[in-house]
Amino acid sequence: MAGEVLSQSEIDALLSALSTGEMNAEQLKSEEQERKVKTYDFKRALRFSKDQIRSLTRIHENFARMLSTVLSARLRTVVQITVASADQIPYEEFIRSVPKMTVLNVIEMPPLDGRVIMEVNPNIAYAMLDRILGGRGESINKIESLTEIETKLLSNLFDRALDSFQEAWSGIIDVNPLLSEFEINPQFLQMISPNETVVVIALNTQIAETTGMINICIPHVVLESIMPKLSMHYWMQSTKKEPAPYELEMLQKKIQVADLPIIAELGSADISVQEFLMLDIGDVIRLNQAVDRPLTIKIGDIPKFKAQPGKVKRKLSVQILDEVKGGDSDNE
Questions:
Q1: Residue 254 forms part of a structural domain
Q2: Which residues constitute the domain of residue 275?
Q3: How buried is residue 107: exposed, middle or buried, by Cβ count under 10 Å (0-12/13-18/19+)?
Q4: Distance from the CA of 83 to the CA of which of 180, 214, 298, 324 falls in 20 to 30 A?
Q5: pLDDT (tens digit, 9 = 90+) per residue, 23-57?
Q6: H helical segments located in the chain
Q7: Does the global pTM surpass 0.70?
Q8: How far is Cα 41 from Cα 60, in angstroms, rounded to an integer?
């Protein structure tokens, strides 16, 4: 029968109680025979395993590092973001935990269903806005009176941050996050049932001297289709990732327009240093290449083709005659 594992301190306390008479063996047996009842709250259904929570934490640790770099460049100041916690709670509890007026970015993540909320504490949001407008990053909490220009500036900033979100999730699934809504009142965001389980990843954020939290709320419905991929077994199966078709197509396009150093080698000659120093204008160097023999065409330093020299519209040119077999040595 499986039993509870006691720590060394708990074992010492139990032995001490038995030796001093505070607890006897009969009492201990009777307690073991009693039925142990554990309270279970159906409103707080745990739909994510610890393994899956760890995977989500790992994803958002990558996101935090990349977002720190992006915001540091955009705001021209030091930005530090770290994962503080990752918990699963009812959606209603998340809504109650955020301020009455805050910055809420609603993010769609096709091909996944549902939407994700990125809640930015007003202190952090106004520090960002102050830096964008040329300030020192000071925060004043007047989130309820955001102007249209301020709303647009913050929306553009968070929209750029979604590139980091996409890259952080690329190890699990290729998503295309889109900023669909920008809201300041959480009461207007009844996206799912109040009792629906969500994962909330809290990010500690520091911008200059201002600190605050960025909370990412991910409903269970968003992750339902990729739950198996959030297990450590999936992470450890293989580190090799097959490229997606669009990645192969992009790679092919980049290869096609890549610049290659091409050399038409007329021949070579060996001379002494003294002969080299005595060279003058008009001197002739005898090459080891006969005039009637084809030239070697090198791509970089590797021989690839044989060609004959000529002219096209008064410009020097070569005509490819044959391919060098092997490609790594001069084959005559």
A1: no
A2: 262-323
A3: buried
A4: 180
A5: 565 665 565 555 566 665 555 556 778 888 888 88
A6: 8-20, 25-33, 50-75, 91-97, 122-132, 148-169, 220-223, 232-237, 245-256, 273-277
A7: no
A8: 28
